[in-house]
């Protein structure tokens, strides 16, 4: 066997295989370089979603003639002034990005240094370097053209997706950078698509994750459910914006995490965000978050992943504790709120396509003829307010549950709003499932099962936190078979398991012996399934996993089974008691599955439906 040194162009192409996975990788590397160069405006132009052409032009510091060729050599950088790999304040240093991209494409770099009078251009054809020649640019900065990506490695082209998919990946990269750098303006152009752009935010809105930039990137709807987060612990700082639990989505696409301004896709951090929301989010749903973590550079390793999408912290538990604690504290401050879009959706449900009232409902034939005479019989002439007046609301009132005769009628209820809470005075029960409450400026609809479920769950959690979780010994100890990794994970958490009412010991290499469990769970859970789930969650989340989270999840299930069901008739006293308990209970805005417990309808919006405004 003969050992030899590979040619430089082949080394660069191998490095490109790690750095340049798709056109979005090129956009990410070049845009990050532009930001590190002090750019305040970045323009990105594409053809065939970056497969045929990528142009990135910035107004950063630019480069002199001699620096052009040097920038295309491996491990040449301006980002390590002290040669200290553990004191990186930029997007980080890898050393292969620019030469690697140039080795698998046809690249032209044109740059005008700040304060210089002459721009210079340098062409690279699949790794073959040309010589700098004079050029022109309208302002200082750098323009990089990347044509025919993967022309030197055509097999890689077969692994690219459709143009739409590749464009979506580029769009996601630009969105993440735009969120992290509100002071930078971004423009994205492609033939046949409408240009996407966000302008630089004013100084007052230039903090990372500012609501102004969030609205520009994600749309105005984010503002209805946005909560600002600001927390510190030692030298660590967390800030950004999160959504209310009820404003959740089917995917984690709108979960943006940044460490020292660097966009990440770190599974452990995403799991920590999930732990911060806990039981407030239903399984399979995801909140919207844009969180920015500031960590001293020496406390984080930013070069542990080829694409720089993951990092390693010196103190992982401190980071997890900051994120979980910061999110839970902020959510607790708004624990009675539900997302504003729910009210909008509820009101829109009262706006069906117009239909003439049925003759079987209160003089419908007479009203139908009068509406037809006024030109409202057709679909195109629908009037939401008129439809509501004779349609949805009438049916809703017919469905209202008659009030029990042995309780005061609603009109005899106290009308002094100072005597009640923000959830108002109960007026009726609909379909033995929903409570209608009146407030000074509108009405509230309450899901009785969801609300009671949350009340029970919070009581169980309080009992756990107060040390009221007694242990119950098993008549016959149970052996739970696991794999070796799962058994090791549980063994490492035996003291924590004991503190929560378990008595567990190692039983061979791949099993544990359970002698006692929390009395609260006795007869309500399958022991083997519970411990297997706990082991899997420990392996998934690592050292930061808290057994408490697993126990609280089981408490949520118990509360769901113990809550009053839809179909249970409540009298006014019971309804009022439920509303008052909700006002005193944390997180009563959503049930244990993350669904809203109540929806507020403002009187002003209701009056608009009836065209009173």
Describe this structure in words.
By secondary structure, this protein is of the alpha+beta class. 35% of the residues lie in helices and 22% in strands. A hairpin with a 5-residue loop joins strand 8 and strand 9 (196-198). Helix 2 runs parallel beside helix 5 (163-180), helix 7 (267-277) runs parallel beside helix 8 and helix 13 (448-465) packs antiparallel against helix 17. The longest helix is centred in the N-terminal third of the chain and has 18 residues, at 163-180. Mean pLDDT is 78; it is low at 352-415.
From the N-terminal CA to the C-terminal CA, the straight-line distance is 87 Å
Number of strands: 26
Based on CA atoms alone, the radius of gyration comes out at 31 Å
Q: Mean pLDDT score, rounded?
A: 78
Number of helices: 19
What oligomeric state best describes the polypeptide chains here? single chain
Estimate the global geometry from the Cα principal axes: globular
SS-based class: alpha+beta
Quick recap:
This protein is α+β, with helices and mostly antiparallel strands. It is built from 19 helices and 26 strands. Strands 1, 2, 3, 4, 5, 6, 7, 8 and 9 form a 9-stranded mixed beta sheet that branches.
